[in-house]
Each structure stands twice: as C-alpha cells, then as structure tokens.
Specification:
This protein is an alpha/beta fold. It contains 13 helices and 12 strands. The chain is globular, with a radius of gyration of 22 Å. Bound molecules: iron/sulfur cluster (2 copies).
C-alpha cells in the first residue's frame, strides 16, 4: 500500500469499531482513541502500558448484586481496533491468550479478545529493547493485519480471517504485485533493523538453568533491599496478568458490585491468605517470585519464558531492577572469570 493511501485506509478501519493507536503526549506514548489519522504517531519504541489494557483492563466490574439476586456484567459488544502494536506486544497477547483462553476460559477476557482487531506495526529498537534475545522481535501470527513500514509504502501482512476481510474491503488501496525491488528493500530493512539491536540478555538460553542451579543466590537479597514494592513492573509488563477480586457493599447494605483489578506479586499482602498468614512477607521473596516465574517457571509450563523483551521494566522501574540488571547479576555471580562472562 502506498503511503498516500494510508489516511483512506485508516478511515476504512474506523468504520469497524472504536479505533485506538499510539499517540505522543509529553514525550511518552500511549494507546488513545483516534478520531483522525493525523493523531497517530508510529515513531515510538514502547507505550507506557501495553495493549493488554484492551483485554485485561486495570479495573472493571464483573458483577452487580442486590440482596436476593445478581447480574453478571460482561464487556460490551463494540469492536475495538488497536493499531501500531509491535511484535513483542503481539507475542505478549499470545501468552495471555494461552492463559485466559486455555482449558478454563475467562469469559471477560474471551469477550474482549473476540472483539479486538489487532493491527501490528513494524518498529526499530532502542537500547532498552531486548526482544532479539527473547526471540520475539519478529511475529508471524497473533495479529489480524500487520504493517511493515518501508520508505514509500507499507507491506501489509494478513494474519486472520478478520484481517483478510479488511484487506478485501481495502482492495482498491492495495497493490497486489510486489516488485523485485520492493522485496530487496524489505530484506535490506530487516538486515538493518537486526543490526540496530545494542542490548541483549546474557546467557538467555540457559538463564533458566542458572536460576534453578543457583536458587539461593544472594543476588535476590541485594535486589530485594532496593525494591520499593511499587508494583510498576507488573503494571507495565505486557505479560503480567495477576488480578484480585473485591466485593464492595454499598452504604445501604442492600446492593454491591464485584470488581476485578490488576495485582502485582511485588506488592505487600499479595501472598496473604486466610488466617493472616503471608507466604512472602519480604520484598526479596516477592521479587524472586516475579523474575523466577517469568524467566524460569513459565518455561517449564509453556516452553517459553513470559518475558517478550519489550524493555518496559528497563524504562520504568525507579530503582533500576529489570530483566537486564537481574540476569546480568545472576550470570556474573556464576561465571568464574571475566573472560567467561564476556562470552
Ligand atoms: S522491581 Fe522496581 S518497579 Fe518492580 S516493585 Fe520493585 S521498585 Fe517497583
Ligand atoms: S519482564 Fe520487562 S522486558 Fe520482559 S516483557 Fe516484562 S516489562 Fe517487558
């Protein structure tokens, strides 16, 4: 699709539901509702909150109840379209799909997911992107459409029946034949992008083993002392999905609502159970849970880590605890010589 056709393409997509896309505000990016294509700004590496906010919102009501009855509150039917989703965040949605649409289907997630159209967009890395290490810098499925932006045109990839339907509708905006020259431009762009990654996670392939073999590492204590238990890392991480459920009774004691809200294993009381027993009263134990779950336990259950290398923990943890500093410290602790560490 030539770039000139892009505004028309956005107009066509807007007819499918409520459109959201990346918008720049005070040097930061977030997915906001788009009224006009000119509000879209694709020149970004990461939004503060990932598109998980469209499928697992930070807080929502699931039930309204009165003294002798209750009504379930399901998300409404309006389709939501999110444009500008990067490969790492699409991988994160695939991880969430496996969790929430597996053997036990979460009805709230399922409804939102069914009504979500994902239009991916290519990106270039900065020094916080570690998706090349996690193998999530490219994506082949999990989207409806994906736009790879080249000099004068977009390559439009179709990833689902919904996406195909849109592509068919947009037929007069698209060129079916991709020339040899355009293919070469795409290959050059991919090679250049690949060489732009400057940050990687050391020993990523066997990091899970290092965590396992050195389970009582002192590294956790050091990070635990620094951690503020603020929960930012979970809020921004596109794969963090823990939630808690709260029943609120109104003042008249006759009615109430049930709310579900995002939680974080780094917060105090996260592991508190009946009888006031807290399994992880200290920050060290909670932080260790966060990173061992992401980088080790998850692999045992699903065959891949639940870090997609988006760099948000690197950008937003106020005390510099993130997937790089943690894995570096774990790795350096076990490598005998600087020479081995540097490999
Ligand atoms: S690791 Fe960082 S972002 Fe996460 S809770 Fe601790 S201080 Fe906050
Ligand atoms: S752990 Fe950090 S880099 Fe990995 S997915 Fe979560 S926020 Fe992104």
């Amino acid at each position: 699709m030539s770039k000139e056709k892009f505004p028309e393409f956005v107009e066509l997509i807007k007819n499918k539901g409520k459109l959201f896309g990346p918008v720049k505000q005070k040097e930061k990016y977030s997915y906001e509702e788009i009224k006009d294509y000119s509000e879209l700004d694709f020149d970004f590496q990461r939004t503060i909150i990932s598109p998980k906010k469209f499928i697992t919102p930070a807080k929502y009501t699931t039930l309204r109840f009165v003294k002798f009855g209750q009504t379930e509150v399901l998300p409404d039917d309006e389709p939501q379209i999110v444009m500008g989703v990067h490969p790492c965040d699409i991988h994160a949605i695939k991880i969430l799909d496996r969790l929430f649409l597996g053997n036990i289907k979460d009805p709230y997630y399922a409804k939102r997911r069914e009504n979500l159209i994902i239009i991916g967009h290519s990106c270039l890395p900065d020094d916080k992107c570690v998706c090349q290490s996690t193998g999530t810098d490219m994506v082949e499925d999990g989207f409806d459409l994906f736009l790879t932006e080249l000099d004068d045109f977009y390559l439009l990839w179709v990833g689902s029946d919904k996406g195909l339907g849109i592509a068919i509708e947009a037929e007069n905006l698209l060129e079916e034949n991709v020339s040899e020259e355009e293919i070469q431009e795409y290959v050059r762009w991919q090679q250049e992008r690949s060489s732009m990654f400057t940050t990687s996670i050391p020993s990523y392939k066997y990091l899970a083993d290092i965590i396992h073999l050195n389970y009582d590492s002192e590294v956790w204590e050091q990070f635990g002392e620094k951690c503020l238990s603020c929960g930012t890392c979970s809020l921004v991480c596109p794969t963090c999905n823990c939630f808690h459920v709260d029943d609120k009774i109104m003042m008249n004691a006759e009615e109430g609502i049930r709310e579900r809200m995002l939680d974080s294993c780094t917060l105090p009381y996260y592991s508190m159970v009946a009888g006031n027993h807290d399994f992880r009263p200290d920050r060290t134990a909670r932080l260790k849970l966060y990173y061992t779950h992401k980088l080790k336990e998850y692999i045992g259950r699903w065959g891949q880590p639940s870090c997609v290398g988006c760099g948000r923990c690197i950008a937003y943890c106020p005390v510099d605890i993130n997937v790089i500093t943690v894995s570096n410290a774990l790795f350096e602790e076990v490598c005998e010589t600087q020479e081995v560490c540097d490999q």
